[in-house]
Design goal:
Structural class: alpha/beta
CATH topology: Rossmann fold
Order of helices and strands: HEHEEHEHEHEEE
CATH architecture: 3-Layer(aba) Sandwich
Strand content: 15-25%
Largest sheet: 6 strands, mixed
Number of domains: 1
CATH class: Alpha Beta
Number of helices: 5
Helix content: 25-40%
Oligomer: single chain
Distance between the termini: 30 Å
Amino acid sequence: MTSMMDMPLPSSGHDVFERILAAPAGVVAVRSEDGAALLEHFRGIARHSGQAVYLWQPGLGLSSLRDAHARVPDAQRLGQALRYMQQSMHFGVYVLQELELPLAAADLTLLRQLARATTGHLRRVVLLNAPLALVEQLGELITCIDSEPELPQRLRLRDGRWLSGQQA
């Protein structure tokens, strides 16, 4: 029999999605051990809520997660997709997957502009499992999120008080 304390917490795609929307920066770097499962969570959110969530992959371009067959025309290359995101007048979450370094200077400039954009329409560009060098290059402009659930703190009784494992 497995106790509740020993069971792993489920990874909540909804929690990660809410944290992305609440991020102060326009570009959010998300680190996930299972990127495919996180994308499936996002696909479910897009289908259930009607939110505009897009996925960009090299070679495939920009496509809707809500409708797998809906592709954005002229957005196969990263620069084209970033310009589309910047010019879009609608809410959207744009997930960029499998980014490879080095990025073109124009693409890096567009990412920085999207990260700084705090006025106007809410849009979030999500760098899913982006190379660490890119995250460091963008620095303070972006928000970093780890999608893995934190391990529950083990409480212990000491001198009649409950303490977490971090306190002595």
